[in-house]
Predict the structure.
Amino acid sequence: MFATDSLPYLNPNQDRRVALITGGNSGVGYYTVLHLYLHGYIVYIAGRSRSRVLKSIRELKQDATAIRSTYTSQQSSSERFLGDLFYLEIDLSSLASVIAAVENFKQLESNLNILINNAGAMALPYALTQDGFDIQIQTNFIAPFVLSTKLLPLLENTADRFPSIDPPRIIYLSSVGHQLCLRYFNMNSTFNYKPNFVFTWLRYGLAKIAGIHFMKMLALRNPKILCMSVHPGFVMNTNLFSYWTRLPIIGIMFWCLFQIFGYFFGVSNEEGANAIIKCSLDPTLTVEKDNGKYFATGGKESEPSKIAQNMDFAARTWIWTIHQLSERGISIPS
Ligand SMILES: NC(=O)c1ccc[n+]([C@@H]2O[C@H](COP(=O)([O-])OP(=O)(O)OC[C@H]3O[C@@H](n4cnc5c(N)ncnc54)[C@H](OP(=O)(O)O)[C@@H]3O)[C@@H](O)[C@H]2O)c1
């Protein structure tokens, strides 16, 4: 694990940099926000529940104050500055809400330095959203695709206006679960079969592989922006597992299983955030050498599955998505 302390601290009064993260109110997103805030970033936490995000903002401020109390007096007075925290409304299960969030954000900020597509849903039963996609595909892939592509002009504009600072970044939270697609990959597969506890993982894996393809295609098409995918690690105490742990009676069995798995193979929520923080703030990552790469637990550069690396598949995923969106009347900036 690298030390987040070694990453640069900004003074937001002299160098105002803006980050937008989906789902920053819980799990690994929470600790990602905490460190961006401690490093002087203006962070917009995009979430579907105003009350949950505002509660997390209060807790983040308390946690940041506690961490700052451990700084030396020089660090707190002249080297390390807090950024700011804001709420942005977004519900990824509605593409209209995603588009409205982009419009709201553009009214609030003229620059965007870091976009983190962190929010996700895992292992839910098959269910169609109002846009006609399975809930897991939409939350984990389609909505991040729409959010990122709609914000691309702002990110590119930021790159053009500030050519001497780090290029803007887009980070996508994938998962080692993308490997579940094995040799079979087809974006038209709905995997809407029984039993759910088997096929739900294929829907999750498909979404997370599509997200890696998306970062690779963006890296190819937008060389001004640094795009990366991340697997944070097995982080068993986040809300991601709550569909299973809240099931009546057998939920307790799943909870015990996840805890045992986490004991042997898991990392804490804060350790899980490390890879995202590294991809967000590490100045040694560059568009020339790192664009489109995949990073695993602790920020270790890794290779995703062969299907995820395959650029023919990535191009097909891109075309499939554009086609699906255009059928729904949604165009993306060229
Ligand atoms: N935990 C792991 O072991 C693990 C492993 C690999 C990859 N990941 C990925 O890491 C990311 C973060 O997961 P986590 O473990 O930190 O889980 P988490 O605590 O459940 O966080 C997920 C976040 O996504 C938000 N979200 C879910 N559906 C949404 C929607 N329709 N609209 C807006 N926001 C929505 C949640 O908001 P609410 O609070 O409103 O529900 C929550 O803030 C996910 O993309 C996940 O797939 C996690």
